[in-house]
Amino acid sequence: YPSEFLMQKITEDNQIPVHIHVSMSLQYVAGLKGNALVEFFHGNIAEVENEELRHLMWSSVLFYKTPSVEVMACVLLSTKAIYFLLDDSFIQADEHQSDFWSKETSDCENSSFHLSCCFVLKLNDLQSVNVGLFDQYFRITGHSADHIVTCLTRDSYNTHTFIQQLMAVLSLLARTPSPEPVDKDFYSEFGSKNTGKMENYELIHSSRVKFIYPNEEEIGDLAFLVAEKMDGLTNLQSLNILLYVLAFQVNNVEGAAQNTSSLQPKTLILTSSDLFLFDEDYISYPLPEFAKEPPKRDRYQLADGRRIRDLDRVLMGYQTYPQALTFVFDDVQNQDLMQNLTLDHFGG
Question: In CATH terms, are 4-98+112-173 and 216-253+260-329 the same topology?
């Protein structure tokens, strides 16, 4: 340990997305390569001496207690824990952080040494992993509200790779076997005898961590919600959701020297007749077991919606990743719907 393949892999993965601006401390981490990156992990992050770094990923993250604050993080998976190395701006981003993070950095404010906050979720405390629609994100749940984190990968490959690595690491854990019977029939495992409805598909890992995937009913609920927002739709059966993708709405901000762009996270949903933007709650649903009341806001809140027949033209940017698309509609003058989408979603 570590193998040459692992060293090469984590070096390749240690790249901040080009459209994200991060603090100096995370830029320093992103500049580390190979053995220097492994030494940095053991010298500054790892909690025990014999744990091994297995996977590295850059992703936006959300915390259950601050559902409106999305922050960039370097996610490090070891044989003992999941570490979220957070951008410095996260501490000042929300006034409710005071009881969530201990601020002990006052002595280093005037120092040239850059500090980052590191949130640790031990694998032994992990209870479930909820994978979002079309593998655009996943939520990791521990034993309390402080231990619920959503990774907004916005990329099915990164989600799939992390889940695979997490399952492999969990297989190394020695946990006491569950007292529940091993052999279960199909209906008792996946169905509810009271309602007769299928529950979300669950895979119970040998470590007793649940991996929960969405089923067709979740798509149906989303289609029903979209149908309510569409004018003149009478037949729900004719509605097909062609695309669901987590994207950014680009709002140009007039700066003193030059124009800068502000990225607003949105869920883009495309049907055969309309294009919608939703503000989605990625962290509160499905409700954790300890939740005593539903969240204050709905899971999907409509932010914008346009008819495809009013689409005049689509402008494509020159950059390769992520791809910027500008949708120009002729129903509203001087209001463009701009999106950043990855090229992965346009493959045949």
Answer: yes
- pTM, to two decimals: 0.80
> What tokens appear for 205 in the block?
């890992």
pLDDT band at 334 (very low <50, low <70, confident <90, very high): very low
Secondary structure in 3-state letters for the chain: CCCHHHHHHHHHHCCCCCCCCCCHHHHHHHCCCHHHHHHHHHHHHCCCCCCCEEEEEEEEEEECCEEEEEEEEEEEEECCEEEEEECCHHHHHCHHHHHCCCCCCHHHCCCCCCCCEEEEEEHHHCCEEEECHHHCCEEEECCCHHHEEEEECCCHHHHHHHHHHHHHHHCCCCCCCCCCCCCCCHHHHHECCCCCCECCEEEECCCCCEEEECCHHHHHHHHHHHHHHCCCCCCHHHCCEEEEEEEEEEEEECCCCCCEEEEEEEEEEEECCEEEEEEECCCCCCCCCCCCCCCCCCCEEEEEEEEHHHEEEEEECCCCCCEEEEEEECCCCCCEEEEEECHHHHCC
Q: What's residue 263's pLDDT?
A: 85
Over the stretch 250-271, which tens digit does the pLDDT of each residue have?
A: 876 665 444 456 889 999 999 8
Sequence spans of domains, the chain? 4-98+112-173, 216-253+260-329
Confidence of residue 104 (pLDDT cuts 50, 70, 90): very low
Does domain 216-253+260-329 bear CATH number 2.30.29? yes
pLDDT at residue 234 is higher than 50: no
pLDDT for 91 beyond 80: no
pLDDT for 196 beyond 50: no
Cis peptide leading into residue 286 (ω within 30°): yes
4-98+112-173 in CATH: which number? Answer: 2.30.29.30
Of 154-168, 188-202, 224-238, give the range with the top mean pLDDT.
Answer: 154-168
